[in-house]
Amino acid sequence: MSSPSSSLSKTDLEQQIQFLKEIDQLKSVIRKSPLINQSRRENSAEHSWHLAMYALILKDHADAPINLERVLKMLLIHDIVEIDAGDHPIHEAVDHAAQEAKELAAAERIFGLLPTAQGEELKALWFEFEAAQSDDARFAKSLDRLQPMMHNLETNGGTWTEANVTHEQAEQRYTPVIQSGSSSLWRYAKEQVDRFFLGKK
Hints:
By secondary structure, this protein is mostly helical. Helices cover 65% and strands 4% of the residues.
């Protein structure tokens, strides 16, 4: 009986290795969010790993039943397009149409490095995450918004302070997305945001 790996052609393996080498570049995409110890800013690969851990630990807070494996896959690949398109924080003005076009082109190029079936599977998960219509994607999106919020709270405002974000803006940018995937995480997030901003007045 053949092993699963025996069905892979040499070309398939070469494509997979090329993809894995290519995504090493995500370690060089620097985000605005500081590390909690404030020694430097985090990179997008670290962010993706941390989100996968958020999903693993907080999975029971999802409002709807989720497929954890699919959520983990979404979180591990969701920012791969930043290799070509860069990171654009929610607190900065950006041409959304132009950014979406860059990210789509990046998704086509990077996932296109893989064998066709595998690349199409991951690209479909990326699109699902972006659309945030499924239960899995909504929970993944909620964590993607929660993690940088926690970093800001732990670093005396972090990117909020840098971008002069108001209490109202923070609520608008974080609460609805977090609430869409988890009511309990939303209640926690709102309480923390309120405490941070109102406590400073």
